[in-house]
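pinned: reference chain
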Amino acid sequence: MKIKLILIFLLTIIQNSWAQNCDFEIRNLSDILNGKSELIDKSEYEKVDETTESFIEFTPKSELELTEKYPKIFKLKDSCYTFSANPNIGIGIKIPELKACKYLLKEKGYSNFEFKGTYCGNALIEITEFEGWGFLTVDLENGLTCFTMGKPLTSNGKTAISYSNYYGEEEIALTNLKTKEQYVIGIEGWSTIESKVNKNVYYLKLESEFQTGCEKEIKYLKVEIKN
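pinned: its structure tokens
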């Protein structure tokens, strides 16, 4: 009898764990920007096609071009560029600075960067590290910088959306490009496959992935700044 009760108990735990792993759960990583996200119907997402806006393209600029034009912002020291940033413990920025470094040393690990270009008064630098990657958006007026795991996309130059998947968790960031304040969320087991923007509101289409034993699903998410 005891063995039977134990088996029932274990089965219940396994079923509950499986159900939880298949859920669409939003984890709040940072809300300095005071953003919000909500699931919407497929019909609402598809209506955005009628008035959708285009994302702004980036202008390619080399490291040499930018360092020569903005020497006060881009200062290379000990193989690193250092930029001022908003402290944000939620996404790992514990001190008010961000770095782009190049080195391959046992005591420091691996780190590299590449200047990708400019957009909306900002420089974009792609960084790669051991088990890490992302982008730095550097304000060309004051050097204030923010980090996004995915490449930022913007249609109006005021806010930007970015998304990238880190070992099964989709990280989505909404960024104020002037203040560099961010609203960042994580969704375990899902990946963004499409995005749209209209009137400063971003719409994402996500597909369930990395979830063993779960049925494939599609969800639609609206992300914006609270009024």
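why pinned: The CA atoms of residues 62 and 115 lie 6 Å apart. Confidence is low (pLDDT under 50) at residues 2-20.
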